[in-house]
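Working notes for the structural subgroup meeting. M.R. asked for a predicted model of this chain before we commit to crystallization trials. I am recording the input and output together here so anyone reviewing the notebook later can reproduce the run.

Input as submitted:
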Amino acid sequence: MKLKRLNNKEKWYVYYIIFLFMIELMNKLFIFLELKSMPFLYPVYIAGEFFILTSLYAKKLGLTQYGFIPLSAVAGIFLISAPSLGFTIDNDYAKVISNIIIVCLSGYALVQEIKGSEAANRFLLVDACIFFYYSVSVFTFIVQHQLAALSQQNASLIWGINNLLSSVVYGALIYKFLRLKK
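Returned structure, recorded in token form:
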């Protein structure tokens, strides 16, 4: 696919899918190599995902370049302070805060796009999927401590729904890229 056909805002979707692919690849590689401890990967995932998606929506909403300074600072806080402050997979405040900010930005961008932008938005479906996935993800990460009290089947169902929705986001992105390639 030629990136020249994508405008400056749309290139952030490519960065997002490449980032997710690299994180998944590293995760599978660590599992294959039987490395059980990879706590450094999770803060990188949270910070990178946050920075890429908030940058995408900041561009879509027309924020100035100075708007990227606080986004970069928050992403840096997620990356650097998460391990030192004890944010772990069990106590995941950084992920919830990150997802809430992403939901707010993506929701506002969706409202602006639906409200009547003159330019056709080719990634409206992807934006809707991102909004829906991150909204449900906030709920999932808020209740994850209660999942231990649920039966294995019910907890697996909740995480399965989260994984299904992330697959829908990946699928929508891949579908859109394949449609643009034609």
